[in-house]
Amino acid sequence: MRTRLRRWWPHARAAFFIYHVMAVVILSLPSAGALQNRSTWVTRNATADFEAWAGTLRRLGVDTDGPRLRERLWGLAGEWAAIQRAISRPFAGYAATVGAEQGWMMFATPQRHPAELHVDLLVVNARGEEEWRPLFRPRSDEFVWMRWLFDHNRVRKLMGRFARGMNRPVYDSVARFCGRRALAEHPGARAARVRLYRYATLPPAAVRAGAATRGEYEEERIFRAEEAR
Amino acid sequence: MIRRAWAALVAALSVREAASGLALFRIAAGAVTLYAIASMAVGGIDAALWVDAAEGGMLSLPEGRWLLRWMGGPTQAAITRLEIAGVLAAAAVMVGAGGRVTMLLAGQLYLALSTANPRVMGGYDALISGALWLLFLSGSTASWSVDARLRTGSWAPAAMIPAWPRYLAIFQLLVVYGTTGVNKLGFPWTPAGGFSALYWVFQEPTWRRFETGWWAAWLYPLTQVATAITWFWEIGAPLLLVFFYLRATGERGGRLRALCRRVDLRAWFAAIGVLLHVGILALLNVGPFSWISLSYYLCLWSPAEAPWRGWVARAEGRGGSAGPQLVAGLAADRHEGAADQHGEADAERDAARARERAGVDAE
């Protein structure tokens, strides 16, 4: 028995080696989940990318534009997703069990339309008037509330997702967490406001010339103290 | 043809080498795992991210993987217990205590924690759990470990372990770089987009450590060069597999094979990679991604070829009776480092003699 096992072990090991290599390769291909999230296809960033690629293709003689290119690729992505689901099936369970999962879409397309999470408090000033005061701004040295949390790489990832494709239930949950916590830590505040500040980053010449980014607020959520506490 | 290829594969996977190579990988991966868990627990970030909204966390979370489900789901109590166990297991991986069981345990604990909130998982999570799985397959506690000390009386006996888990680690590293390069389809990564990607990364606050927008604008051409190098280097990473193949089949001759034996492409690949990761560490906060990636670099060379083999030899020399055993380990390694100096047959013969003397051969 032992002799037979010793004879077969190198072959079993080679078979496992090939299986693992195939799992790594197939699972590292763009996944159905990543490709079929429509919200990531219609962001300002993605739209700018499609326009730019369409421009390049037009210069090469291909008759297309941004929206048409997007829809063509969306169709292809759907077809690929069906194939990817089928070929990854024999490996997904193994990878999930042992921790060999893949997925390496890192900095695939740099964000040029960031959405910063801003948190403000409604307070009563010395003149007895209500005013909004900034509590948190990303990477600010002045408005540093909960910076220990917001600066962590995992929270950065979560915040970055709001610019890449809005998931409202997730955003609502984050906003509620921030609003409640801000009010709990500032008992004198009347309300907390959580918003996304969206802007387009500037090209090198504009930055060198000292131009400032101009953006707008969206997805405003206000939490009144009497309701939140 | 297929039979011959299969036989060659079986033979290649039967190679054994000194355990010090994967021991270094084990120590580095254990340290990164420890940091990745502790950095969540110490700051209280775990309560916000890994605990369900019903218990004060930021998001409503799924039940999690089997271990987290078994512990009762993403509650503060379950997460705390998993973190304590995870930190202990990671420390045991680092010092090499408990053999393969520790690697498996650490891997499952890390999986349970890192997948508790799928929305905040990073690339480094998969690299860490993947490293722990490969270490489980390798028997890397045969040397440079508490296990070795208990078993042989030496911290660093020249034990032999299979080389194929190290091959898988190399393959994983090259797939990470290759596919991340291919996935970089955003216009700014390409020549058509003016290689402007890194400039745009430095303009927005998601990942940068400090204000980098202004100097990136003034050093724009430099960011373009860095973008181009990064993109081509990542896309070209899988070509290193060709280098490994040509080097491993050096006896077949040919100019390309001779070139591969003369010029160690790995050194160039690693030099660019180290520069890239040092840049990431200095400018961007992407967690321990660079640290775990660099840990995999330790697998690029077999123990007999590694640029740090002299340092290892000196360290093992201090480990008591490791001197002759180290010679056994290095000589027994069937890779080019040994074969270059003595010829492969000599290396094999030296290895057999040294093994006989040392009497160490850990499976």
Can you describe this structure?
The complex is a heterodimer of chains A (229) and B (363). Chain A is of the alpha+beta class. Chain A has nine helices and four strands, in the order ααααββαααβαβα. By secondary structure, chain B is mainly alpha-helical. Chain B folds into three domains: 17-163, no CATH class; 179-301, no CATH class; 312-358, no CATH class. In chain B, 66% of the residues lie in helices and 2% in strands. Chain B contains 20 helices and two strands. In chain B, strands 1-2 form a two-stranded antiparallel sheet. In chain B, helix 5 packs antiparallel against helix 6, helix 9 (164-183) packs across helix 12 (220-236) and helix 15 packs antiparallel against helix 16 (289-297). Chain B is globular, with a radius of gyration of 23 Å. Chain B starts with a helix and ends in a 5-residue tail after the last helix. Mean pLDDT of chain B is 89; it is low at 319-332 and 334-363.
SSE-based structural type of chain B: mainly alpha
- Percentage beta strand of chain B: under 5%
Strand-residue proportion of chain A: 15-25%
Please state the overall shape of chain B, judged from the principal axes of the Cα atoms: globular
Tell me which oligomeric state these chains represent: heterodimer
Which regions of chain A contain 5 or more consecutive residues with pLDDT less than 50? none
List low-pLDDT spans of chain B.
319-332, 334-363
Structural class of chain A: alpha+beta
Radius of gyration over C-alpha positions of chain B, nearest whole angstrom: 23 Å
Indicate the mean pLDDT of chain B: 89
Overall number of domains of chain B: 3
In short:
Chain A has 229 residues and is an alpha+beta fold. Chain A contains 9 helices and 4 strands.
List keywords for this structure.
heterodimer, A: 229 residues, alpha+beta, extended, B: 363 residues, 3 domains, two-stranded antiparallel ribbon, 2 strands, 2% strand, globular, disordered C terminus
